Amino acid sequence: MAVVGSIQIQGMKQLQHALDRLPKNVARKVSRRSVRRGAVIIQADAKRRVPVDTGALKRSIRVVESGRMSRNGIVLFRVRTIRKHGGYYANLVEFGTQPRVVALAKLRDKATGRVRLIKNLNVGAMPAKPFMRPAFDTKKQEAARAIEAELRRGIEEEARLLAKGGKG
Question: What is the pLDDT of residues 112-126, one digit of tens each?
């Protein structure tokens, strides 16, 4: 699903400077934990908004880390649906579909139990029911505040541990 957005954090230069003073592995741990905290807020709102039929699409909404931390210290997490957990049709729900025709369809008659073949079955359009983009748009500021708060808390905690001689 190609819904893309980013979150800007005020005062990030000062936080980045504080992170740079920590050992790399500790800074990475604090950064990952902080960004995940923000992503979970958006995930929870997306799960609240998603239309539920079987619940598979709702269960498929996950927070996934996007590879390793980049050289400039950027940590990426995605709130996305996982295909193998039932999210293979998320884009159809989020964006809707055009009217479509199935060339050959098998339908079972409920009364007789017999299967009928129908050519050119018009299954119509499915209206969009956005859940991911509205979740991001409404929760991005809350997520940014959570990321900032967790960064500050994590930096202070790890600096205190390192000052005591701990490993962080």
Answer: 888 888 888 888 899
Helix (H, G, I), strand (E, B) or coil at 4: coil
Considering Cα of 46, then 49, then 55, then 56, what sign does the dihedral take? negative
* Closest listed residue to residue 132, CA positions, set 32, 76, 60: 60
Q: Please say whether the beta carbons of 87 and 81 come within 8 A.
A: yes
C-alpha 44/C-alpha 30 separation (Å) is 22
Q: Which long-range contacts (CB under 8 A, 24 or more apart) does 85-88 make?
A: 85/56, 85/59, 85/60, 86/54, 86/56, 86/57, 86/59, 86/60, 87/56, 87/57, 87/60, 87/61
Q: What is d(CA 145, CA 49) in angstroms, rounded to the nearest whole number?
A: 21
Distance CA 123, CA 64 (A): 34
pLDDT one-digit tens code per residue, 19-72: 778 888 888 888 889 999 999 999 999 999 999 999 999 999 999 887 665 555
Rounded Cα distance between 114 and 20, Å, is 69
CA distances to 116, 146, 165, 168 from 142, in Å: 53, 6, 34, 27
